[in-house]
Amino acid sequence: MKIFSSIAIRAPLLAAALLSATGGVAGEAPPADPLRSVQWENMYGLYLAGRPVVFDNRVLVLAPQAAENSLEVPVLVDAGALGRVEKILVIADLNPLPKVLEFYPRESRARIGFRVKLQQSTPIRAAVLTADDKVWHVGGVWVDAAGGGCTAPSVGSGGADWVARLGQVHGRLWDRGAEQSRLRFDVIHPMDTGLASGIPVFHVENIEIRDQDQLLAEIRPFEPVSENPVFTLDLPGRGAVQIRGRDNNGNRFRASVPPPAAAGKAASGAAR
Amino acid sequence: MRWHLRLALALLAMFSAWSAAAADLDYGLQPVKVAADTYVFQGANEDFSFDNGGNIVNTGFIVTEVGVVVIDSGPSRLYGEQMRAAITKVTDLPVIRVFITHMHPDHFLGNQAYDDVPILALAGTIDGIRSQANAFTDNMYRLAGSWMRGTEAVRPDEAIDEGELSFGSRRLQVIAGGGHTPDDLMLLDHATGVLFAGDLVFHDRAPTTPHAELDIWLRSLRRIQALPVEVLVPGHGPVTRDLHPVMQTRGYLDWLEQTLNTAARSGVDMAELLYTPLPGEFDALSVMPAEFHRSVSHLYPQRERRELPRVSN
Ligand SMILES: [Zn+2]
Question: Which domains are delineated in chain A?
Fold first, then answer.
């Protein structure tokens, strides 16, 4: 990975970028796109204009160079190196629906893993809004995809039994030491984009993760997130957490994930 | 100086484009004799491309007293036709049977060249080709371009089971393995000890897993180790006189299974898993790390979900 190769030159570059970006309000030209996407100016205008924008190597976007399954392209965004983060916005420039998800880390690390449906080769970008100075820090990679991911109807809604399983949640916590735990969970949901003919848009639109005291993190998925979405988050503490969510049709789901040790025992005996 | 260099590069580019057109899509298939009456067309040890026209696969044939037995027909109609023409330079005997080792497109899309010959395969191979032929063909057109012109998927016309077949005095053993795909046929020639292993065995090239069941595949490989093999013809990669490619394929699949399961059990995200460093011996295989990334996509989702118990009501 080339992530660390730019450490030596980052500071002056970043300062320069900040200077040039402070005037990055609506109507002004966005900074030049290192990924050279024809849609960058549009993305900037639609989602980012109004705040300063800098390209920042500390925003890691991990994804395969080529998508083997364009319905389920794994992506992990990590902006933990940026300090306090208000929100992460993930966009895929060349998707018919570019907005993939919003993530509000709140108390958790600014890192999220998920999967996305891609219609064609596209940049996948994470725009990270820092909490203190309200600057968009943008990172991203190109993913080469054969396509079909967004207009193909989801596999689940083609089957017969998904209605009965809608909103089921499977999940587990892992102890990561230092009062940290990792949460992985999925939600049974077709995540229909509305682009396939005859199938209306139908997707999970909000998920909250709480411990007994507070909201730890919030995810707002949009249409391009894969069917039966799987998420990876890194949370503070080592206790049980509650997951609550709803889709755009008002269906609600909730689940409680036992703390790491108990989850290990539960997993061995659990049948799906 | 710089101008001279540019001019040379431009001329070189022009010349190579011109010579590719002049070659008129010739796979240049040369039969290599690997045992008595037994020949292999060895493909490039790389991924499908516009340059190799999909010729990344090993096909072969055995000349028996009563005619020629062909093993796999290659990635395109053109390949099948050029292969059949190359066979006529070795023998005047007619082709009497074609065996298709498994359902992957680089192994059977040359079937059109053998439309006057019975084409045999295991039942699962025929089913797989029936249900996925269009997707396979589309994909090959995308990857190999004009080499695919005129290619259509032709299903094998006869399902066979494991057992011995005689062609004159030649006894060929059909072995029904699996795990690379639902049904993987191998052909062992008792006269020479040549084993056509299909894609159950890869050599110096990363194994592919789009339809793989790793435990079944590993069982098939253990079975090969008990066979009287003198010459091993892998589906991809150089022919050998020992079982080294079997051990190499086993080693990789064992490592892959263990790596995926350990990651799933310890909560690793799929995108993080892509960045797992490969042990040197596997990193050295061709088409790495791309093939490992594909395998993660094929095989990780079912394994990670096994580790997530239901937590909603
Ligand atoms: Zn194969």
Answer: 153-272 (2.60.40.10)
